[in-house]
Amino acid sequence: MHENSRPQHDSAKPPSAERGIEVGYENMTVTKVPGWHGIIAWDALLNGMATGLFLAAAVSELAAPAVFMHVAKIAYPVALVLLLVDLGLLVLDLGDPLRFHHMLRVLKLGSPMSVGTWCLTIFSLPLTAAAGLSVLSILGFDFKWARIIAVIVGLLPGFGSAAYKGVLLSTNAQPGWKDARWLGGYLTNSALLMGCGELLVLSAVMGQTQAIAILRTAFIVLLVLNVIPLGLLFANLRSAHAQRYTREQQWRVGALIAVGALIPLGLMLFRGDLLFISIAVIFLLSQSWLVRSVYVKIPHTSPLEVRSGK
């Protein structure tokens, strides 16, 4: 908190307080903007890609093992690589990266950050086991039931890892973020959508025709459903957008986000081969990164921060 934002004497009180009206600090920005920039947008994207791919592969394999087992064995190691890159970005973003383990000293069930950190930590264990056992299976050492148990154990912490970032941002006092009540819902559905798209690409690369047919339908449904939490999130932040951006800027970003949703939908309705699937998923990932980038920067573009030259 900056010193010039602290009310220390009567002269620092709002004019209404001098007239005997108790207003507290409800109209004053008293929070310090976090030092979060582009790296957090990439973190949110990679987190969704890793958790979404695991959840999509796990649910698909458990529901129809004969159809999805082969592609799932490839998906788990890919999800692990994505998660490791994501965790690397998280550690680098800390003020002192060597102190990352301090977040695990306690568990506070009322803290989204504490619960999220533990979900990520717990999720990494069964994901690592599932990935390792999948590689062994490809090499000819199949421990099927051990791998299935690891997949089942990873479902709940995987879902928590996908959801916690949106809940964390929407439950703090930062301008803009505190109004984003649908951010958790959007990020969770977005993770499932990206995971389905990634699994669809892997299925196309491997030539899994039956898996492609099922995942293509699921991908189209999730694309349509994703419009709901994204639209509600925009409604949450309508006033925040109006304060920070010109109407032209709002239309420009809105058009880019809409294109990122409509092009994948059109491609999937038109054809379902590897080229069209890959282009659709690339557009989806680009749109997903754009949404995360815009919302991570909201506190940094608040009117107070802009006026102070930050």
Following the backbone from N to C, one meets helices and strands in this order, namely HHHHHHHHHHH
| Overall geometry | globular
- The CATH class of the largest domain turns out to be Mainly Alpha
CATH superfamily of the largest domain: Formate dehydrogenase/DMSO reductase domain
What composes the largest sheet?
none
Binned strand content: under 5%
- Can you tell me the CATH architecture of the largest domain? Up-down Bundle
Q: What is the terminal separation in angstroms?
A: 14 Å
Query: How many domains make up the 3D coordinates?
Result: 2
Instruction: List low-pLDDT spans.
Output: 1-18, 20-26, 304-310
Global structural class: mainly alpha
Radius of gyration: 22 Å
Percentage of residues in helical conformation? over 70%
Number of helices: 11
- Do you know the CATH topology of the largest domain? Formate dehydrogenase/DMSO reductase fold
